[in-house]
Amino acid sequence: MNLNVSDDTEQMSRKVADWIVNYIHQTLKKQDRFTIALSGGSTPKKLYQLLASDEYKIKIDWDKLHFFWGDERFVPFDDKSNNAKMAFDTLLNLVPVVKNQVHIMRTDLQPDESAEEYEKILHSYFDRKKHSFDLVLLGLGDNAHTLSLFPGYDVVHEKEKWVKAFYLKEQKMYRITLTAPVVNKSSRVAFLVSGADKAASISNVIFGQHDPDLYPAQAIQPFNDGLYWFTDEAAAADVKK
Question: Is the full-model pTM beyond 0.90?
Fold first, then answer.
């Protein structure tokens, strides 16, 4: 595990942006594409805005990037809570991406159909490959959930399917999510976490007894040890004690 603690969210976002740019450059020296799964939430939003800025967007070969999502709320694309819409508004509409290399989780199908379609796309990319995504960006909830892996739901223990749809009772909506098997095959996985309200979650996930039913983010353990945590001081308070 690699832990990088910044003074605040702004500094953290810049560190992550620099790290991603360098990682993309190094990866594209060895292969002709870079696959990344994006996260929703307020913390990555700051990162996306930075990557879309004049300072950073010229440093990335956007036509070689292939975009995916870690999870999605089953709401229309134009809904403000749609993760894909947030990424388009803050990043993808502002940089020269290739349209057919951007793969959203569709919410104009039935949830199970959408999950099945997305899994087929992933298999077309990653079957017979050494790893799946080059990079998966993740957040962490104050209940230790990541992706749409929530405490007490069977999807946390999925071993075969790469994408699952399920009904989240607490939010009264369907969610579509990548599962641990495909994320753990990634070359690198990076958690981006900020705020004092996440301090206990980080400590429990990293140091707590292994119990994914209680701390679902513990299910994310990349097979090649490519796990990175980027946090601000507030979020890392309990880890640094």
Answer: yes
